[in-house]
Specification:
Elements (H helix, E strand, L loop, with lengths): L3 E6 L6 H14 L7 E6 L5 H8 L5 E4 L16 H5 L5 E4 L2 H6 L4 H13 L3 E6 L3 H5 L3 H12 L9 E4 L13 H15 L5 E5 L7 H5 L6 E4 L6 H8 L4
Parallel strand pairs: 1-2, 1-8, 2-3, 3-4, 4-5, 5-6, 6-7, 7-8
Length: 242
Amino acid sequence: MRRTIIAGNWKMHKTQAEASEFWQDFKSAIAETAESREVVLCVPCTSLGVMSKNLHGSAVKLGAQNLHWEESGAYTGEISGPMLVEYGISYVIVGHSERRQFFGETDQTVNFRLRAAQRYGFTPILCVGESKAQRDEGETETLIISQLRKGLKGVDLADLVIAYEPIWAIGTGYTCEAHEANRVIGVIRSVLDRPEISILYGGSVKPQNIDELMAQPEIDGALVGGASLDPQGFARIINYRT
Ligand code: PGA
């Protein structure tokens, strides 16, 4: 069944102390949020321990921002499935454009990571999206379909979330127009041919545009970067109005 999911991606932000401070303000701001809205916090590895304790007993789910496909080994700087299992995480972001752009992720490594996430019982949030140049060249659909085909080989579609994140809208303040985000997500849904998959929009989501985005029929939720760092602002996003 398609679920409403609002996930915060903290990227490389917040120390453990700052993460706990966020939580103190945030938990009261979402105390009235309907349970049908799944709230996820994808925090840096260093804050997984403290946030796993903080979130205990709450409906908010914990997520990581990446994982390696091997169980252990000589992979400096990486984190594995068994390490994440200890923190009780539910979700893991895979294939974020910043990983693809700055850390050499390819559709193939994205695929390895997706399959590893599912092996350890985490729901992967697969990010796909085009650059400004690709959009200008009219390559948006072809690129996204190729990212899906290659990334999803051997992946169980029954336990997966997709985030459509146009690269030109990430951290830039330029949101993809709600109707256009809706259109592209509709394309993704028809390619996957699995009506139950939740597909989120990501890229400069903020309190000012969430209501319009969530009013679109194809958009099931949001992956929120910068605006998830502020507890009140992120709570307003989660408590979007219909
Ligand atoms: P942004 O980031 O909300 O800061 O644009 C979104 C993301 O990268 O997931």
